[in-house]
Amino acid sequence: MSLVFYLIAALVVAGGLAAMMLKNTVHCALAVTVAFAGLALLFLNLDAQFAGFAQILVYIGAVAILVVFAILLTKGSETPKDGVFSQTWLTGLAVASAVFAVLGWAVLQTAPMLPRATATPVVSVQQIGQALIGQYVLPLEIIAVLLTAALIGAVIVAIHEKEGAN
Amino acid sequence: MTPLAAYLLVAALLFAIGLAGALTRRNAILVLIGIELMLNAANLNLIAFWRYGPHPEALTGMMFAIFSIAVAAAEAAVGLGLVIQIHRHAKTTDLDQMNRMKG
Amino acid sequence: MFEFLDQIFVILRHWLVSFLPAAWQQPAGVVMSVAVIVVLFPALFALTTVFERKGLARIQNRFGPNRTGPFGFFQPVADGIKSLTKEDIVPSSADAAVHFLAPVVLVVAVYMGFAVLPMGRNMVLVDMDAGLLFYFAMGASTELAVFMAGWSSRNKYSLLGAMRAVAQMISYEVVLLLSSVTVVMISGSLSLSKIVEAQNHYTWGLPHWYIFTPWGLAGFVMYAIAATAETNRSPFDLPEGESELVAGYHTEYSGFKFALFFLGEYLAMFSISGLGTTLFLGGWSAPFSWLGWVPSWIWFFSKLMMSIFVFIWMRGTLPRLRQDQLMNFAWKFVLPMCLLNLLVAALWRFLGDGWVKWAVCSGILIVAYVGMGLLEMRRGHIGPRSYRYAE
Predict the structure, then answer these.
(1) What is residue C236's three-state secondary structure?
(2) In terms of residue numbers, what domain contains A129?
(3) A62 lies in a domain?
(4) Per-residue pLDDT tens over the stretch A50-89
(5) Which residue of B29, B69, B93 is in closest CB contact with A58?
(6) Closest residue by Cα to residue C196 from C134, C100, C127, C115
(7) Nearest-CA distance A93 → chain C (Å)
(8) How high is the ipTM of this complex?
(9) Is there an interface between B and C (3+ Cβ pairs < 8 A)?
(10) CATH architecture of B3-96
(11) What global pTM score does this model have?
(12) How far is CA C67 from the centre of its chain?
């Protein structure tokens, strides 16, 4: 495995760890943005250029900013008096470690049976476009409906109620 | 270790970190961040299998990952809207204090 | 001979790189091109600051800086020395790491956008299949840097400025994307070099630039509006409004970091003008077929500087928009127009050649603009213009 992969993987894991362990919420949001950027680099390493750029555009350009705005609107940047970790943190950590143990064991057990490195697939954006309109047109339309529903839903959920409604 | 196994391990590690964060942090927004990390780990898995699988020209893995990114963005938006509304009602985002069904 | 001039930089790079061993040639070529970009655009930035100050001054009926050097043209040198030697003050309650990283992230993200702009024939740094998508991905990263700057200063005014700036940038990013999608639809590719090549044809001596089509003109106008809003230029510069929020999200920055913000803003202006010329104004292609002997990079940079001149002109002439007016404008006027433009571009593609498509597309767009304009004016109770002259 190349040095580039190890560096990017280290960046992603470090970003994820920092996101889950830091005290200041805004720092956590910025750390998870670093993790998203590292993941986009991993996608580029896997020759999935469209997915990599879409990851940057959607996650860093939209989701990270959403998260940061939500933190600011809910006064999340003040440290709570009881500490940042829940009272049941040990159980949570145990469950997560168990999940990682099972997944890691499954991967390492089947590692010899996994496919070896293949030739680089050349994927043009035109092929992706043809696939979206051809074979995947139903998921495309459903995603359109889903995004519209999410848009309307988010506005309705977060809207200020008028004074008379209370 | 094959390249595919390395990517799968990184994805599994990221998933576990996201899960640990979602289960142990108090702030509701950080739980949502953990969920986003888990979704990203799944996307990494999809793209890795697409790249090293038998038929990369069928674009199945990449399409799945792109749709997953879109759905994750929509879910983050609605989830954060909910968190903001809960904060308006309960004046806190501390999940340990939201242990009653009565509003 | 003119073809030699046209490709002179490519030939120069090739010749310089041939002195190195074969394995080092490709990386060295890339490093050389990157070095040129890293040096050239800040030099253009220095020139633009002088033009801006003198241009604004002339619009406002005064001279600009005219002490340093002939007609004030050494002013950027003086400004540079001042910025570099000023004390770098960081507020004690500021978040040191984020405060330091914000200008760095901004400048890096803005520089990345230059990698896909075709500055001449065969003169793209990286000819990517999804070049336009890469450009917008880098543009999205700048918003986060703006927020980081505003939040880390622990200053209410900075934070307010940052939130306003991010809200504005997100709204107009949608407009920018939608007006570029029409170009992608018609030219059939996300690669910027292919988009320029699709515009490099001539009919009766006139070029096939997209701005000369009805949907292209409408798209260009909306792109220009969105570009001014994305780079926080007047009339959309409320986030950095000098009379409103002290200096917005870069209030607490001094010295070199402030110079980096300034550099980042102007580089973003260059980059987005470059993209605009590539998408709508034909990139490096000449305006008339008999002018094709002029090197392509001269056309690209002249179009770029003309766009910058229009930016400066708008700054000197138009009053600032209020935040809610700005957001209303984006979501309620420009975005529906963009969607209509998409429909019109699709009609253009399928109505065949001839005068029918011109008539139908222009007709739809004119009716829509005039109709919506009249509707907005009636709603805002705006009557005919009245003048009041000074006594």
Answers:
(1) coil
(2) 122-166
(3) yes
(4) 999 999 999 999 999 999 999 888 876 666 667 778 778 8
(5) B69
(6) C127
(7) 29
(8) 0.92
(9) no
(10) Orthogonal Bundle (1.10)
(11) 0.91
(12) 30
